[in-house]
Write a structure and sequence with these properties.
The complex is a heterodimer of chains A (100) and B (171).
Chain A: H1 4-24, H2 28-52, H3 57-87
Chain B: H1 2-22, H2 26-46, H3 50-75, H4 78-81, H5 90-110, H6 128-137, H7 141-170
Helix pairs in contact in B: 1-2, 2-3
Chain lengths: 100, 171
């Protein structure tokens, strides 16, 4: 029997891998992909809660979540293209103009 | 039986997620991310949400990943990936991630479901797509409209962001 805990732990493992990717990698495009991993882990846990609590709210929220993720990727990649055009680099450690 | 499939899908998802953050080439990461998204779609099927699985395949594998591959291809960033070495903040980052995972695991092991269960049992969910469609256009009509506006803004915003730089270069 697969319980809610199984799905939540899978979701947590994927979330942790996504956070590790955001913190460890230095190219913006990999950071954006890790953000997508985090979105997916959250979607799994929403869908799991929705199924095990026998409501439909989580499922509907996942639909909205996917829409927001698509919008975020479109804007994020547009910003990435702009950054690459002006800097010729997508290394996050070189993009520190707004620090301090 | 269901358990076997759950473990197959989740182990494949975790392996491909690890590959996404660990391989050097951005194109390889994008392909591993596609594998991970497909496993997540299979997990949605196990959660009796076939509509979510279809949306996952269409939107993530179809649209988002094509956008990612397009960006990698246009920017020609394959070369500088190979020069990347580990972050200076690697050790604090790994400690943070392990602490986060331990906290979440502790909380989930302590948690108990106390809320009353809803009306969507296994049989009611067999018409999952129909029920989702009905509630999207009745109970959730306002968020639905807001999200469609958000998509329009994202569309216009992405075009404006990319065009402005082009005009500046020509001038």
């Amino acid at each position: 029997m697969v319980t809610l805990t199984h799905f939540l732990i899978l979701s947590f493992i994927l979330f942790s891998i996504g956070v590790a990717g955001v913190l460890l990698r230095r190219s913006i495009i990999i950071v954006l992909m890790s953000l997508e991993l985090i979105f997916n882990s959250v979607n799994i846990s929403l869908a799991a809660f929705s199924y095990y609590l026998q409501t439909l709210n989580g499922t509907v929220l996942v639909v909205f979540n996917i829409t927001v993720a698509a919008a975020e990727v479109a804007i994020g990649l547009a910003i990435l293209v702009n950054v690459y055009r002006s800097r010729k680099s997508i290394n996050v450690e070189e993009l520190n103009d707004m620090r301090y | 039986m269901e358990q076997i499939f759950f473990y197959i899908f989740s182990i494949l998802a975790i392996i491909s997620a690890v590959m996404v953050v660990s391989v050097r080439n951005a194109v390889h990461s994008a392909f591993y991310l596609i594998v991970c998204f497909l496993q997540v779609a299979a997990i949605f099927i196990l959660l009796r949400a076939p509509f979510l699985a279809a949306v996952q395949v269409f939107v993530y594998v179809g649209a988002v990943m094509v956008l990612f591959l397009f960006a990698v291809m246009v920017l020609d960033i394959g070369k500088e990936q190979f020069k990347e070495h580990l972050h200076t903040q690697a050790i604090p980052a790994i400690v943070t991630v392990i602490a986060l995972f331990a906290t979440m695991g502790y909380l989930v092991s302590q948690g108990r479901i106390t809320v009353p269960l809803g009306k969507f049992t296994e049989e009611a969910l067999s018409k999952n797509t129909e029920v989702i469609g009905k509630s999207l256009f009745t109970q959730y009509i306002f968020p639905f409209e807001v999200v469609s506006l958000l998509l329009l803004i994202a569309l216009v915003g992405a075009i404006v962001l990319v065009l402005k730089e082009k005009k500046g270069k020509q001038a």
